[in-house]
Amino acid sequence: MGSDVQKKESGLASRIGHLLIAEGADLFGVASPELLSAAPEGFRPQDLLPGCKAVVVYGKRLSDATVESTPSRLFDTMYAATNSFIELLMLKASDALIREGYRAVAVGPHSLDNRLFRGDLSQKHAAVAAGLGRFGLQSLVLTPQFGPRQRWGTVLTDAPLRANAPLKTGLCQPEKCGQACLRSCPARALSERKAEETGPDFLPGGLWYYGNVEKGACRAYRAERKKELDWATAGGHACAVCLKVCPVGNRRTEIAPGQLG
Ligand code: B12
Ligand code: SF4
Ligand code: SF4
Q1: pTM of the complete model
Q2: Tens digit of pLDDT for each residue in 81-99?
Q3: Is the CB of 140 within 6 Å of ligand 2?
Q4: Does 181 contact ligand 3 (Cβ within 6 A)?
């Protein structure tokens, strides 16, 4: 009986995973809501979907060549396009769960509170909990495949999907890169966190460890940069230097337009 339930849980998780990858996602995992219940009140999976049993997390990789160009309009275009694509996948995953008789609530990649600068749910914590990567010092999630160069989508559901376990070891190696992300931030918005935070999980080597981000400084810099470059383009998310300089992950060779035949 127990094994039938387990088979059902992993069967549906694997169908959702296959669907997302077939539709263009590059990474897929399931996070346990229990692990994410350490989030502040109002931002826990159960607060957004009472009875939540699983958090589906998927990632869309960014083009390395476009990341290299940041700050640029090219990067801004990719930022917006990736968010739209993630939103489309959100609907596909939600629909698939709803058709199986479950409830689903999607968290958008850029839905945030303007006062706290906090998302409805931290997709980074969800990606770490789903075993897809670990935090880097600059507070982005690094994956073995792409380092920090992906964006995340999340769908909360009451389907009893089998959760993955977090990766046991971190991927960030500040001693090797000389804290490249912290040093390169043009807004000086990044710093190491002081040791007196809440517990071992929040300290170097811990599951939820990352540096401090002066959110207002980062946001202001990105807006200034857009003005300085005199863009008419909508948006204004073109900095991501802390993402660009990180050496973690494989940088795949891009196909140059001339090679497409
Ligand atoms: C608001 C926001 C911003 C703000 C604030 C960023 C920040 N570090 O919090 C600003 C505007 C500065 C920003 C900038 C950028 N962002 Co942004 N941003 C978001 C957004 C919408 C919410 C982030 C959030 O909730 N932060 C609040 C929390 C997590 O951080 P905190 O306050 O330090 O956390 C405290 C508590 O809140 C608590 N906590 C909160 N939740 C939880 C959960 C658990 C389990 C626990 C234990 C604790 C906990 O723990 C801390 C201690 O008190 C997310 C999308 C999303 N929904 O997650 C994208 C996101 C984080 N951004 C992303 C990116 C890429 C960027 C930029 C590079 C911009 C760009 N050009 O793309 C820069 C990078 C700046 C940086 N180094 O962080 C990506 C990261 C992808 C990745 N590889 O991980 C995300 C995930 C968007 C996406 N869909 O992919 N961003
Ligand atoms: S996005 Fe730019 S300004 Fe913001 S933290 Fe990263 S490097 Fe600094
Ligand atoms: S640049 Fe270096 S310190 Fe920063 S996240 Fe990447 S590996 Fe870690």
Answers
A1: 0.94
A2: 999 999 999 999 999 999 9
A3: no
A4: yes
